Amino acid sequence: MFDREFGEEEPAVAIPDMPYHLSTHIEKYQAYVSSYSIDAFWSSWLEVGTVKGWFNEADLPEWAPFDMTTTTLNAFLPGIMSYYGAGLPVDVHF
Description:
- The protein is mostly helical.
- It folds into 2 domains: 1-50, no CATH class; 54-93, no CATH class.
- The chain contains 3 helices and 2 strands.
- A two-stranded antiparallel ribbon has the order 1-2.
- It is elongated, with a radius of gyration of 21 Å.
């Protein structure tokens, strides 16, 4: 899955070995999707498509086990708490 604008670009993951058809199983259709296929699709789509969104703490359901603050996001984005301060609300734009 390669886009026409940028041409063929290999994903960063290695091409896995394709499993053999298992004739011992009675299934009529067997499919195999690898991380290589998924990475090729998304990297091509991200080069020519757009992803836009907005997410803030008000979007979290009431039962969510965390608040979206600089303190909780520091585990995923190390340094955000020390840069902006602890416990501040965070809006995510993408």
